[in-house]
Amino acid sequence: MEWAKQYFDQPPFPGQCLGCGEHLPENAAEASAHRAYHAIVEQVFDPKPSFKLAALRVKHGAFISVTAESPWWLNERLYQIARMFKYEEGYLHAPWSIGSHQTGIGVLLTDVFGRVIGASVVRWMPFTDGPCWLCTWAWVAPPYRRRGHFRAIWQYLESAYPGVLPDPPFSFEAALFISKLETMPADVIKAATSRIESKLPI
Ligand SMILES: CC(C)(COP(=O)(O)OP(=O)(O)OC[C@H]1O[C@@H](n2cnc3c(N)ncnc32)[C@H](O)[C@@H]1OP(=O)(O)O)[C@@H](O)C(=O)NCCC(=O)NCCS
Ligand SMILES: [Zn+2]
Fold first, then answer.
1. Which domains are assigned to the chain?
2. Residue whose CA lies nearest to ligand 1 atom number 17
């Protein structure tokens, strides 16, 4: 699993699973929990074809929306991606949760085989000085990075949610992209530029 190498300690600590970064379990009960977690990590980082998602793609196009009203399994898929985003970027909480309280709109970018290549979430923010759509996070599966998928996600968001703005803090890679967007207001460009200059982790 090539994708794992860049996310986990190098060299791995003794007994570390190279696929998901967890300790390899020593007893049967833990082995079962490890297998379940391992499968989730693998499904997110190295997505497999899905008939259900391929069928939805035929109906809705490459970008499939996920809201509180969407089927549980779609919410679950977005939640697992959010968990990996949290893990990769070092946040405390996954930026998606499943339930009727959810007000965000998730977007899953799928390929023709129903693989989920990337995801993003937008939220309507009723700011008194100017309500707007905010893109709160985006993530592209490692094997598919640097192929223009984030650019495609952004173009989709701009067309579906006019005036959408990215919500800082930005990752270094996202800041590189955002800093070059001509549609961005000066304060967003400034946040992206200072992120690039600082070169620090979020
Ligand atoms: C940031 C992220 C979404 C980019 O996804 P991607 O599909 O690889 O991005 P794209 O291929 O569409 O690249 C678009 C532009 O972003 C910039 N960029 C993205 N990744 C980059 C990298 N590793 N190094 C340099 N520039 C990069 C470039 O300007 C690129 O344009 P170019 O290819 O014409 O030079 C992806 O790296 C990711 O999921 N990272 C982890 C989560 C994250 O950082 N999310 C954003 C949080 S705000
Ligand atoms: Zn594992």
1. 16-198 (3.40.630.30)
2. 177
